[in-house]
Amino acid sequence: MNAAGRLIAYGAALAVTFGGAFVAAGAVVPDRVVERWSAQAADTSHDDPDHGGGADAQPETAPQKGVSMSSQGYVLSEVSAPQSAAESGELVYTITGPDGSPLTEYQEAHEKEMHLIVVRTDGTQYRHVHPELDPSTGSWSLPWQWEEAGTYKIYADFAPTGDGEDTLTLSRTVDVASELTPVTDRPLSAKDEVDGFEVTLDGDLTAGTSNDLTLSVTQDGAPVTTLEPYLGAFGHLVALREGDMEYLHVHAEGEDPVPGETSGPEISFMADAPTAGRYYLYLDFQIDGEVHTAQFVVQAEQGTENESADAHPDGH
Ligand SMILES: [Cu+2]
């Protein structure tokens, strides 16, 4: 079962399971892979490691998201992008299918065939964008410019056609040259101010249990009740676990909002954090036709009981 199977619908609200897929996959992710991601997050001047040939590499059965460039025979190509900050150009990549040829047909999910998340490995510089497909070559592209140097994770979130409703999230890292100012020890933050809106996150995270979390949007202290549907939901949440940047992109469950419908100021969701530790959260929401992204840093605390989540990854 993947993370989607664990989601709890909350009316028109958001549901999220932090890293649920990672729990299921934890047993088969080689430690050295996790170490490599951790090392990259800590040291952006790493040398590109070998591509991991050998019998012990690439456990293809793992359903984890965002820690591998391949899954179920689908491979994210090398990502071509400007090599230094402030240089403008294009970001280009291809997905190849199990037969090795470029994938040119996709299922639409949340109004797009491809959701691309780009974030620096310290959790900053987050972007959620939708590139264009050239159906004749399978090449995805969009105009691109990096604002800052660093090591970035690129997550391609898509569903091939005729492959059930499996959404895949493949990832790669890209190094961007220029003067680097890494952000370390980001403080915990349950409040963000973005484009004149204040967004507050209420609720605590305890590892191994389901947690109620509520996001509230206000402007000048007044509740905002004009949240608009964006890509088929009132909010979209991405959660990344600090340390391995395990990825989860979650859209609203339950009834899809109809055009013209509005909501707010609260968005509630359920969150399962598989381990104690820090999680980066990014909430996309739309007001007056503009999309805003609020960012949070949340600490999941160790539960008081003996954790059983790792022993029973799917929670049955
Ligand atoms: Cu998207």
- CATH topology of the largest domain, by name, is Immunoglobulin-like
The share of residues in helices is under 10%
Q: Which molecules other than protein and nucleic acid are bound?
A: copper (II) ion
**SSE series:** HHEEEEEEEEEEEEEEEEEEEE
Uncertain runs with pLDDT below 50, 5 residues or more? 1-62, 307-316
Percent strand equals 35-45%
Tally of DSSP β-strands: 20
**For the residues shown, what is the average pLDDT?**
78
Q: CATH first level of the largest domain: which class?
A: Mainly Beta
Strand ordering within the main sheet: 1-2-3-8-7
Please compute the radius of gyration using only Cα atoms: 19 Å
Describe the oligomeric state of these chains in a short phrase.
single chain
Query: Main sheet, how many strands, which sense, barrel?
Result: 5 strands, antiparallel
Report how far apart the termini are. 10 Å
Task: Count the domains.
Answer: 2
Query: What is the CATH architecture assignment of the largest domain?
Result: Sandwich
Number of helices: 2
- Category from helices, strands and their pairing: mainly beta
Any idea what the shape is?
A: globular
Region (Disordered): 38-70
Protein name: Heavy metal-binding domain-containing protein
Organism: Brachybacterium fresconis
Biased composition (Basic and acidic residues): 44-53
Protein model, in words:
Residues 44-53 have a biased composition (Basic and acidic residues). With 316 residues, the protein is mainly beta. It has two domains: 3-24 and 185-301, Immunoglobulin-like; 34-48 and 57-176, Immunoglobulin-like. The chain has two helices and 20 strands. The strands form four sheets. The chain has a five-stranded antiparallel β-sheet with strand order 1-2-3-8-7, with no helix packed on it. Strands 4, 5, 6, 9 and 10 form a five-stranded antiparallel β-sheet that branches. Strands 11, 12, 14, 15 and 18 form a five-stranded antiparallel β-sheet that branches. A hairpin with a 4-residue loop joins β7 and β8. Mean pLDDT is 78; it is low at 1-62 and 307-316. The protein binds copper (II) ion. Copper (II) ion is lined by residues 112, 115, 128, 130, 231.
